[in-house]
Fold this sequence. Notes:
Elements: H1 7-17, E1 34-39, H2 42-58, E2 63-68, H3 70-79, E3 84-88, H4 94-102, E4 106-113, E5 117-123, H5 124-127, E6 156-160, H6 166-177, E7 184-188, H7 192-205, E8 210-215, H8 218-222, E9 225-227, H9 235-243, E10 258-263, H10 264-269, H11 271-279, H12 284-297, H13 301-311, H14 313-316, H15 322-332
Parallel strand pairs: 1-2, 6-7, 6-8
Antiparallel strand pairs: 3-10, 4-10, 5-8, 5-9
Amino acid sequence: MYKRPHLFGLILLIFLFIPHAGTAQAACDIDRPVVFADLNWDSNRLHSRVARFILEQGFGCTTDTVPGATLPLVLALIRGDADVMMELWEEDIQDSWNQAETDGKVLKAGINYPAALQGWFIPRYLAEGAAKGLTHVTDLPRYKHLFRDPEEPAKGRFTNCPAGWGCENVNTRKLRAYGLDDHFTNFRTGTGAALDAAIETAFKRRKPILFYYWGPTWIMGKHDMVMLQEPPFDPDIWRALRSDEAPTKACAYPRPEVEVALNKDFADKAPALARFFAQYRTSMDLTSTMLSFMRETDASADEGARHFLKTQQSLWRNWVPEDVAGRVLAALD
């Protein structure tokens, strides 16, 4: 007797050979690895890994990194040895960047976060307690007893960056310009880790501390602190503050936009990826929160990126088309 083929088996074979719409492989804009500038600080590594995960899993690209410090990696971006820099702090390399942009070698795709932060801080528990009236740098002489330096008890202690850092030099000149060097010792920590440890210890013990810090960082994400007011940022005063050995005026640190930068040739050849990088936008507070999570859980940049993508879907899904988002979500699962 004639036997009909097993209908179920036939349907199963057809199903297996038809790509699923939600899991179809994407074709990357570019047929080589996308190279990220691996700048040597945590927030850049986090954002690079978030973007790399989206490119690899959502756009079907391969990625790679080239490690280094800011200026060498900006030069790599100009030459085309790197394609993407997730944190361009333009002020640090203004002349080199402006010339490269004019020459059509690089471009700013978008803003990663709109306002970075630097300044002098005290803990909120202090600002709302024993130092309730301390809001401006000009108030500091009246409160120096709270920050008593153990080696010079007649003075308070200002906890500065390590010697050799650009911020250490600026803060030293600020102390002088504000007339505070008669009231505060300029305590330079030996390393960045030592600066973090001094802040951590003070917060843990709820002790007074006056210190310089910046964001986004895990310290900012973990601790509740208040930035002291300074005279408003003024570009002329700022230039003199950075160039003169003994400036007579000082002002607040600038609040730069931290941008996503691309090699121009890469952007032209990979328009879909360039659109993604133009949409990539976070905030200083969110980045600090993510870095604090990584610190508290001892998570790697890869693990931090996965945590970001799992917990911030309402944000990053705006950066990409729905099919790309679907593939990223499937990879996270």
